[in-house]
Amino acid sequence: MKLAAVLFAIILMTGCSNWIYRIDIPQGNFLDQKDVNQLRIAMTQEQVRFVLGNPVVEDSFDNNTWYYVYDMKRGMRKRGKDFRKELVLKFDSGRLSSMTGDFEKPEEFDTPLEG
Length: 115
Hints:
Blueprint: H1 2-15, E1 25-28, H2 33-36, H3 45-52, E2 57-58, E3 65-73, E4 83-92, E5 95-101
Antiparallel strand pairs: 1-3, 2-3, 3-4, 4-5
Subunit structure: Part of the Bam complex.
Membrane topology: Lipid-anchor
Keywords: Cell outer membrane, Lipoprotein, Membrane, Palmitate, Signal
């Protein structure tokens, strides 16, 4: 009788596992395409920091490469899938020279800022 009660309780508990709330865990720099659209070739590192904030990683061996990385670990599958977005910026003599990653290159990227 006790064994049947224990088995019944275990079955009920496994059915309730979806009721447990698990939080999403975001890490890194969240960037939106509208932020990336403000980038222009030949921007200084200070101007890029003003627009996007500090990079998550500045390459220790190459100070001219910045990495903006954002990871989202979903706590519950019904809120979507885990995802990762990254943006890699390269500088030449302290000026932005190229961008790669998961964001679209802005239409006006190759047009330097005036001034």
